[in-house]
Amino acid sequence: MNKRLVRSFSLRQKYTEELDEKAFQLLRSGRSKTETIAALDIYQQTFYDWMQVHPSFGEAVKLGCLKGEAWWLEQAANRTFDKDFKDSAFKALMQRQYNHNVKDRMIRVDLLASTAVESFKKIMIAVSSAEISTKEALELSQVLLASVSAKEKEELEQRIVELEELAANQ
Q: What's the pTM?
């Protein structure tokens, strides 16, 4: 490998708390971890080491990924009925980027609605009709929670508590 190329890559990037915010912003905008690592100009192993060694960085990455996943789901919800929407391409992207196992945990864009509360109602109907498990419903609800306004958040949090109680009793 070209020695100049290796030297041009910032191998000695030092961790600073500013990188927490940068990683969070990149991930929440729907970027992958790989894209974020490249933008931070670090090695992949450094990224994962920082997640372990610096709890604030690890939390920023986790929250950024959750918000990014919510952003992608919102994009899908807004385009589901477009004739150009490619469901299989979207599922492949979600599997690659967020480790969704498409066979075990289908991306349920059909359960998304114009508001989080309406989406939650659809999720609960799917649970009651045994279309999805309570575990899947909780996962979808957490993604919804990351994308809601403050007004919807309180109502949705209460409904999630009810769902958790239901899951505990099963």
A: 0.54
